[in-house]
Amino acid sequence: MTVNATTTSMASLYDSADLTSLSWLEQRWVAWYLYFDDPVLATGLMTFLVHEIVYFGRCIPWIIVDAIPYFRRWKLQASKVPTPQEQWECCKQVLISHFLVELPVIWFFHPMAEMFGMSTYQLTFPALPQMALQLLFFFVFEDMFHYFAHQALHYGPLYKHIHKLHHKYSAPFGLAAEYAHPAEVAILGMGTISGPLLYCYLTGDLHIITIYTWISLRLFQAIDAHSGYDFPWSLQHIVPFWSGADHHDFHHMAFTNNFSTSFRWWDRLFGTDDKYRAYKKRVAAMKNATKEQRAQMEKVLLAEVEADGLRAEAEVVRNAEKVKTT
Ligand SMILES: [Zn+2]
Ligand SMILES: [Zn+2]
């Protein structure tokens, strides 16, 4: 089906398809597009709903974890558990940004998808192995893009006017994953969306269902990285090059290290994880201390790293002032 959906009634686009051979999900897909009979509205609304349902659906378990003291033993900065008030304030800001900034932009999603030759209402869905390879490419591409763009956002004026908002929380929590300036959402969001667009442009073979899967996985990654918890079963203990909460929590606390999202290799390659690795080494050296001694030493270490981070942040803001006055 290659007819331009914007100029034709939706029902006629499925005339030649054998709807009985479709999977349950594919049948729901057809029903969705037929119900709205407007592909721009159907794709726009679905994109927005996928984002909202996955974002808040993934944040809710972390809100519950924060409310249960039993889980504090795995909290990375145990003395900084967000209060319900803080979570609600953050949630309100995220919702405002979703409705006022992301929703209008998402409405351009269908026209953009058609421009790049992406399949939207079309069937059938891609096979799982093909989808897995595409997802791997998107993960690697986004991580690379984010590493460099995030470092640029730590440059004085960009930090002061854009990225500082995201660093409001030195001990992040799930909901804070998308707590950011609209310009930051746009800049870093390019890393999420330009991988699929580039892939589609080069191969001409990409279904929007793969993008929804990608966006869902990327949201899981971002929310979990901001969760503030490192469990023994967290993915980074199974896949050693996965960043996880341990890696990104340190970025919020220490300010200067760990700029990537999903993987650790770029920070390792460019040495932007030196302070993080030194800190981990000192924590590991405490293994023979008693539980109380360890908790006390960890507290001192965390305070040192945080004080360093605050100094580094103040310096970036001071430099931004200098740029302004010269
Ligand atoms: Zn940052
Ligand atoms: Zn963050």
Automatic annotation (TrEMBL):
Main location, first listed in the record: membrane
Q: Name one molecular function that GO assigns to this entry.
A: oxidoreductase activity
GO-annotated cellular components: membrane
According to its UniProt entry, this protein's organism is Mycena pura
Supply one GO BP term: lipid biosynthetic process
Q: Which UniProt keywords apply?
A: Membrane, Transmembrane, Transmembrane helix
Residue ranges constituting the Fatty acid hydroxylase domain according to the UniProt record: 136-272
Q: Where in the cell is it found?
A: Membrane
Q: What is this protein called?
A: Fatty acid hydroxylase domain-containing protein
PANTHER family in the record:
STEROL DESATURASE
